[in-house]
Amino acid sequence: xxxxxxxxxxxxxxxxxxxxxxxxHKQSPPQKIVSSKQACNQEAEAPAVQHNSKQPTLGExxxxxxxxxxxxxxCMIFSLFLIFFGIATLVIFLDVKPRTPVFDTxxxxxxxxxxxxxxxxxxxxxxxxxxxxxxRKLNVKYEYLDIKLFFSxxxxxxxxxxxxxxxxxxxxxxxVHLISSLIHLPPNTVLExxxxxxxxxxxxxxxxxxRVKAKLxxxxxxxxxxxxxxxxxxxxxxxxxxTHSCKTKR
Length: 250
Known about the structure:
Blueprint: H1 20-27, H2 36-53, H3 66-96, E1 102-117, E2 120-132, E3 139-151, E4 154-161, E5 164-166, E6 171-184, H4 187-199, E7 202-216, E8 219-233, E9 239-249
Antiparallel strand pairs: 1-2, 1-9, 2-6, 3-4, 3-5, 3-7, 7-8, 8-9
């Protein structure tokens, strides 16, 4: 049999051509397209949810300790007391108008000045001290009184006085006797004193220190008072007051 006598079997037709990348595209699920505005909203909502999830839960309120309430009430009462006391003090001060007592020397006598040796002074001075209470409603009490006599800033005599009291508007005169006995003076001070005696004008400085208590009923307060008087007298033995000037301050 020849090859021409063998029957020919027809071949099956080839399958249609399909690209590989198109198959994969058809098999993948469709993706959802998200706009840029929606993406921003989703990103903003995510931290908010996380922030809310971290907020602590509030517990039951605690009760205040009774001791704290007690201390607060005491502080309030004390503050009200201070305010009331301050207002009362201001009213009393404005009504009373306290004034400083006055110290003055209306008269003085220089009896003796002599020297045992070139540097030692002996002297005798008597002056009249006038204490005045210018207050209209306050009583004053002088609890401590100290008088000192100076010449050219050198202390030459000291005298203490007895305590006394004064009613409102009252004045009191007291004689003060100051004696200098063997007081050592520097040479230049001795020379200045001798010159003043020769000129018949001797200048002294009188300084007073007083502890004063002012009283109004049950209220009282104390303070220190300082008086200073500059006096000029004629020479001894009959030295009299020529001029004087006094200041009193607290």
